Amino acid sequence: MSSTSIDSLLHEKRRFAPDPDFAANAVAGTELYERAADDRLAFWAEQARDLVHWHRPFTETLDWSKAPVARWFGDGELNVAYNCLDRHVLAGHGDRVAIHWEGEPGDTRSLTYAELTVEVKRAANLLASLGVGQGDRVAIYLPVIPEAVIAMLAVARLGAVHSVVFGGFAAESLRARIDDAGAKLVITADGAYRKGKVLPLKPAVDAALAAGETTVEKVLVVRRGENEIDWTAGRDLWWHDEIAPMSDEHDARGFEAENPLFILYTSGTTGKPKGILHTSGGYLTQVAFTHKNVFDLKPESDVYWCTADVGWITGHSYVVYGPLANGATQLLYEGTPDTPHPGRWWELIEKYKVSIFYTAPTAIRSFMKLGREIPQKFDLSSLRLLGSVGEPINPEAWVWYREIIGGGTAPIVDTWWQTETGAIMISALPGITTTKPGAAQVPLPGISVDVLDEEGAHVGKEAGGLLVLTEPWPSMLRGIWGDEQRYKDTYWSKFANTYFAGDGAHLDEDGDVWLLGRVDDVMNISGHRLSTMEIESALVSHELTAEAAVVGAHDDTTGQAVVAFVILKGRLAGTVTPQEASDLLRAHVAEQIGAIARPRQVFVVEELPKTRSGKIMRRLLQDVAEGREVGDTTTLTDTSVIRIISDTMK
Ligand code: WTA
């Protein structure tokens, strides 16, 4: 976040007390805080017993003897898919709609809990027939269609491990993730609808698997786009052909609580994405607990909608596992918010009478830009609770969200968490917390948060520092796939026995937490995490580039935008104009990583500012990219560099 926006954030004094009617009917009560404060572990054990069905009950709550790898509910056994499906049917809720799905072109499909259960059982039989069993990794590269949810749950049902790769990632990124996880099966689709067109997906899988030996044996292809695709006989199989003969009987067996559930790759401070590993019992407990209490879920009457793609952690925890574990009815939408018209989301809220809506600040800001007239054309009166996630929400966007989308009454929950935390950690509880626009505010019951200075001392009130988590929590990551040392180094080495989140935070006069953005080289573009190093390595992989530096510069809509500075190779510099070089390199990054990583700007420069020890000074480049006066440059080897760069940009 830029220093000006931090300033305005910390001067925000508006307060919104809970509405008494809402509070009277709220799911969460203050006794949750009391119980958790009284006995944190007993509190989590109660949640685990209350919200999760155990094939074999646990007797042990937390084993922290192998810290920082936790074991939660370690001697218990459960089946995650059974918890999301069968048990609701057995409890008499089989006729409740689990998923109202709408495709971008307007085609629809609704699945009740009974129907979804049958689909997942058949898919589990199919995967088992292809040799998938406990511990095997399955890569899922699908659009937001019901099969994405079905595939994830089928993998979970078998005790196997899914690695969902966001459909916006390009072949190279997909390949790196498939290889790192050693996936034996890939589930994909021919194509997906995006912005009114079919975006092919299968070619990326073909390209990924064409490059050298692979662990992948089969590719299951869901028909969605009906676009022409290449076919590798013996490897590729149509999902609909293969699933047709499958039995709809499948007994879900229990797996131990620490059985791996999924790997999800996220950007860190180095070029190589980290495979964040989550397991079963603790994860399911905390996603179910948070989904129920933070969103005030009344499963009999609510229609819930989280706009995240299933390829991100928000899609895992708050599209798939949280809502389905709680027996919620939800909307799933394939497309973009502005296709075929800019009111598409509001039209969907009106059509499905969505009551709980969870989205990202970047989306809210882009709607603000388009004007309130668009949402005001639709009946949004069904909405009774709004959520925000992915990046700090600026107070103006918060207030607009409440007024224009929430009718001036819907409480907003600003939820702070990470791929690594698995579930929401810091958030208001609706009906209890008096909310402050721009602040995630309070750790949830059972969660221990602190803000420390560089030396590890608590900063006290009205002071800023680094956000940490001081006690293990049920849905915490259990490691980085295949790299335990990196897990320890990244999160547990800065402070002793304390999880370092990588975010800056401020505590206000009440001790409430205001998140201030990343303190490392991780950027947050439209709520998506990208590392500067990852994009720099994509840039230098192009023959034109000699050196590259990337920064996340403030952007009014996307929060941050990727801005790159490159030095061209001497002998090639004369062969292209700076504009051509910039266009080529922007396209190259999109090809290498995916369109989300495409730089907003690529500046061709003569030199990059470096410290005497040769480290690129990203701070200075960020100042330049954000058009600020460049501050102290005394540690630079050559102070003229910045002047030259700024001149180039004019
Ligand atoms: C940022 C997304 C401020 C933060 C769930 C974190 C937030 C990173 C908020 C994780 C919020 C997420 N307020 N910042 N409410 N929510 N962040 O792994 O910088 O994609 O470290 O998980 O997003 O991003 P990730």
UniProtKB/TrEMBL annotation:
Positions of Mg(2+) binding: V540, H542
Domain Acetyl-coenzyme A synthetase N-terminal span(s) in chain numbering: 31-84
All copies of domain AMP-dependent synthetase/ligase, residue ranges: 90-481
Keyword Magnesium (UniProt): yes
Record-level GO cellular component terms: cytosol
Residue intervals of the AMP-binding enzyme C-terminal domain: 534-615
Name recorded for this polypeptide: Acetyl-coenzyme A synthetase
